[in-house]
Amino acid sequence: MQSELTLTLEPIDEAAWLARRAMGREMGAAVCFSGVVRGTEGGGAIAALEYEAFERMARHQIELLFRRVEERWPVQSVRVAHRLGRVGAGETALWVEVIAPHRREAFAACQFIIDEMKRAVPIWKKPLTFCL
Amino acid sequence: MGTVQIRVYFFSRGRELAGCAEAVESMPPGSCVKELLEKLFRRFPKLAELRKSLRVAVGLDYQGGDCVLKDGDEVSILPPTQGG
Question: Is the entire prediction scored with pTM above 0.90?
Answer without folding.
Answer: yes
